[in-house]
Predict the structure.
Amino acid sequence: MSKRIINYFALILVFVLFAFKANAQLNETFNGITYGVPYGWDNVDYDNLNMSAWSYYANGFDGAAVACQAMDVSSKTYAVLKTPTLRNLPAGCQLTFQAQAPSQISQMTVYLVYGAKQINLGNVRTKGGWSEFSYDLSAYAGYSISVWFRIDCGGKGSYASEWCILDNVKVAGKPNCAQPVDLSVVSLGQTEVSLMWSMGKDGTIS
C-alpha cells in the first residue's frame, strides 16, 4: 500500500473518530487537566472555611476527574461546580455523568440554569461505587443553559470528612442506537488498523 493511500486512510480514520463526538454539546472527561477545573468551568462558589473547591482528582472512572471534600462536617457546608454556558441547546439532548461518593452520605443536587431560573433536575446519592446518571433536557431546547453540580454535606457529626467525585459529563442528543465510547486507535499498520471501544448505555445494541 502506498504512503499516499495510508495517509488518506489515516485522514478518514480521524474524521470517523471525530464524528462520534460531533453531536456532543459538552463532552468533558477531565483527562485534559492536571489541576483545578477545565477552562470555562466555574468552581469559585464554595464554603472556603470547611470545604475544598471542586478540582482535579487523579482517580476518576477512567482517568482524571474532579472532586471536592468537606474537611469539617460539624456544620453544614457546600461546593458548586458550574459548566460553561451551552448556547441554543439543540432538541433532544440529555445530560449524562458518572459520580461516586465514597462517604455514602454526601448529597449532590443537579441544577439546569438558564437566565435567572434554576431547575432542580434531581438529587444524586451513591453508595461507594461509581454510578451513571442521566437527565432529559428536551424541554429546554433553544435555551442557553449551564449545569450546576452542588454538593451539600455535614451537620451530622458522625463522619470526619465527606467527599464526592464527578466524571464524564456529557450533554448530547440521545441516540436511537447504542454508540461506541472511548474509541481509540490501538495500532495502525500499512494494511490494517486495530481499534478499541466500548458500547454506551443509551440506545439499543443490535
About this structure: The helical segments are 3-19. The first strand starts at residue 24 and ends at 28. The mean pLDDT is 80. Residues 3-19 form the longest helix (17 residues).
